[in-house]
Amino acid sequence: MGIFSKRDNNEQPKLEGKENAVSSSDLLNEESTTEQNKEIQTELSIHSEWELPKEDIYAYQFLNMECTPLKPNQLSLSGINLDEEKEGLYRVTAFVRNSLDKAIKLEETTLVLVNKEGQTLGRKAFDLSELGEIPARSSRPWHFYFTHKDLFTQELPREDWQLAFQLKPSSRKHSLDLEASWEKSLAEDSKARLEEVVNNLTPPKEGEVNFMGLQVKKADNGDLHVTLLIRNGSEKNINLEQIPLQVEDANGDVVAKGGFKLDHLTVKANTSKPWTFIFPKAMIVKEDADFSKWKAYAPTQK
User: Fold this and answer.
1) Contact (CB, 8 A) for 148 and 53
2) Which of 45, 136, 243, 292 sits between 20 and 30 A of 300, alpha carbons compared?
3) pLDDT (tens digit per residue) in 222-235
4) pLDDT in tens, 157-183
5) Spans of all domains in the chain
6) For bias kind Basic and acidic residues, which ranges apply (predicted)?
7) Is-contact 166 22, C-beta < 8 A?
8) What does the alpha-carbon distance between residue 33 and residue 100 come to, in Å, rounded to a whole number?
């Protein structure tokens, strides 16, 4: 694994490839709550089974420090070098970088090799579980091997290439996402009914976020309890901090309206999450509402 042995003694190692970073929610459906404008420096992490000469460890440490800081919730491939190990077998070495504040495990993922003009030079599916658990905020060097059958050209650049994740539209079925408090408090038959509702509904359009009414109930103190499904049709998790809502009855009259502050309520990609909003009596504008048919919506979504 001594990939730096061909260097002259006075030659500093350098990153010959470019960086490709993607959102962790796009690849893993995982996010952390790290402050979004914070820069993440990743620490070098060598796989436990790699036995490296000291010069390679020093070189990887140096190159890792040369990498651009990542943003929160990113996974990145940072190109180190590209070499023909033997005739017809090309070794692409890159850092696999994780800016999440927790360790991750990757699965089989398709990677593409592109040149500086963005042209695809090769494509191959790799079993990234072989990297093992990649610690929080770390960079793990790894070798990716391409053969002629994986490449679309025999002329590979030595510099300014990029190894990139090939992201595919999610094929996951739209599913129920329960907050931990709901998971603990709901009876199993109630969970089953919610799952049945979600499974029988037409999923929201790609990228769409909307609300669907589940239950409306007036409390003894005059408050209105409105339970909705928050439906996330996008391929990314959404974090809700504030929602303006209006409720209409069967006559199309506004029954209640107000704004709700939420404690960073997260709805995962391609899921629906039930949530109950309580309108205090002061927010109710129509007392004798007909709830034989009703809907709730953000005013801009009507």
Assistant:
1) no
2) 292
3) 999 999 999 998 87
4) 999 999 999 876 555 678 999 988 998
5) 19-165, 175-301
6) 1-19
7) no
8) 9
